[in-house]
Amino acid sequence: MMRTTVTLDPDVVAALQHAARERGLSFKAVLNDAVRRGLSGAPTRRAYHTPSRDLGLRAGVDIDKALALAAGDEDAETLRKLALRK
């Protein structure tokens, strides 16, 4: 173990104090952990990956009809809003 004096920026001190309160650890323990993680060079978490799948088109589903119905509903709502402004 080695004792040393280090000048930390105020934002770093605040972040360390916040982490210490959240984790219920001492300032020293949080600082040592942060330095260890920083020097290890290894990522702390694995990147999250969401698998994707080709859903394709379902037989019997007419996308053009669905889009036309949605457009009609949107037009009706626009007309309703315009009528309310009169």
Quick recap:
The protein is an all-alpha fold. The chain has 3 helices and no strands. It has a domain at 10-40.
Order of secondary-structure elements: HHH
| Shape summary | elongated
Determine the mean pLDDT.
90
Provide a count of the helices: 3
Kindly state the percentage of residues in helix.
55-70%
Report the span from N to C terminus. Answer: 79 Å
| Largest sheet properties | none
Name the poorly predicted regions. none
- Output the structural class: mainly alpha
Assembly category: single chain
DSSP summary, beta strand count: 0
Pfam family, one: RHH_1
Organism: Mycobacterium persicum
Protein name: Antitoxin VapB25
Domain Ribbon-helix-helix protein CopG: 2-37
What does this structure look like?
Helices cover 58% and strands 0% of the residues. The chain contains 3 helices and no strands. Helix 1 packs across helix 2. The model has no long low-confidence stretch (mean pLDDT 90). With 86 residues, the chain is mainly alpha-helical. The protein has a domain of 31 residues. 0% of the residues are buried.
